[in-house]
Prior knowledge:
heterodimer, A: alpha/beta, Rossmann fold, 2 domains, 5-stranded parallel sheet, 9 helices, 9 strands, globular, B: mainly beta, Alpha-Beta Plaits, SH3 type barrels, 5-stranded antiparallel sheet, 4-stranded antiparallel sheet
Amino acid sequence: xxxxxxxxxxxxxxxxxxxxxxxxxxxxxxxxxxxxxxxxxxxxxxxxxxxxxxxxxxxxxxxxxxxxxxxxxxxxxxxxxxxxxxxxxxxxxxxxxxxxxxxxxxxxxxxxxxxxxxxxxxxxxxxxxxxxxxxxxxxxxxxxxxxxxxxxxxxxxxxxxxxxxxxxxxxxxxxxxxxxxxxxxxxxxxxxxxxxxxxxxxxxxxxxxxxxxxxxxxxxxxxxxxxxxxxxxxxxxxxxxxxxxxxxxxxxxxxxxxxxxxxxxxxxxxxxxxxxxxxxxxxxxxxxxxxxxxxxxxxxxx
Amino acid sequence: xxxxxxxxxxxxxxxxxxxxxxxxxxxxxxxxxxxxxxxxxxxxxxxxxxxxxxxxxxxxxxxxxxxxxxxxxxxxxxxxxxxxxxxxxxxxxxxxxxxxxxxxxxxxxxxxxxxxxxxxxxxxxxxxxxxxxxxxxxxxxxxxxxxxxxxxx
Lengths: 302, 153
């Protein structure tokens, strides 16, 4: 994995994924290691994403590394019309690894082709966000003690949600059963379902959100956004259907955990927060350990 | 059958005949091979009856002989196309086009408007998917451009 960019979750084999998760567990046990002393990590955020940026910066800082970069394109030379290639080639001179967030799809793959230092994709438009997927996998493994043979419910926007697509693809290594819970307009796209069909992985589709979550191991919630609907009436009809309320957790399994990539709007009621099955804030913390693992692994330190 | 076509499209002395082009894709083939920018004599027949394709097109280009890589570019739109190399009115060689096996670079446009190749000076690059019809998967944005949406650069 040394010097290999992480652009798409499919860049990593099952073994590489498991290695990152093992490393993340080591960092969770012992987060204070000055492994990045003397290293400079560039953090190029061509669009703002405070949560992801802070998580990366926290990971680097805790390991004693230094960060350079910008948090939105307006404060960089991009606003003067510099091409992505020129920005990457310049910044690569100043850093050992580049973390990049960009609104244009495929920008991360392109950056990895032109860059002499490894690129970690922190989200390229609606395309890929592999570090999110790895932290989701880490959260599943931490809470369930395993990744194999789990009942995974994906709820909300399954059409545009890149996190659910990447998580679904990555979980196919581990023989899951999927339940897709989404309104008609935001159903899981056919190409992903045929991918599962080809692998012989079971999945069920639901448009209502009720007590069949009782046999779930993981309920992964996402936002249903108004702007995704061509017909505002359709949004009004479904906006309150995909909300997880505390009473719905009453008969769920003891090991069941609720995950959410955050930020949340209203799709998880606040009364769920105090339920021990709510895991989304710890999930965000896991992002720091996972990113520590990814960066040290790519730099060949771990 | 052959005789009929010969009546519609006159024979050439030396050059290349490209046959079995789907009629709807004739002008894509013309564009890919740059036939609209060369001075050679060209005869085109379109909407000819074909048992295999329904309606087909045929192109005869005088004094033009293509490199294999050049001609394989048309496989994206005309995978059934056949070439006859003509010397002194005789067919001296027959060729079929071959679909690029791995990468398609700089030929087609990615259909995703948010793709880097449509927003920056980046050459398009696709892996070839052999589904019912040929489709291209963008190496950058990972979106699939199917045959109906294929635009040749």
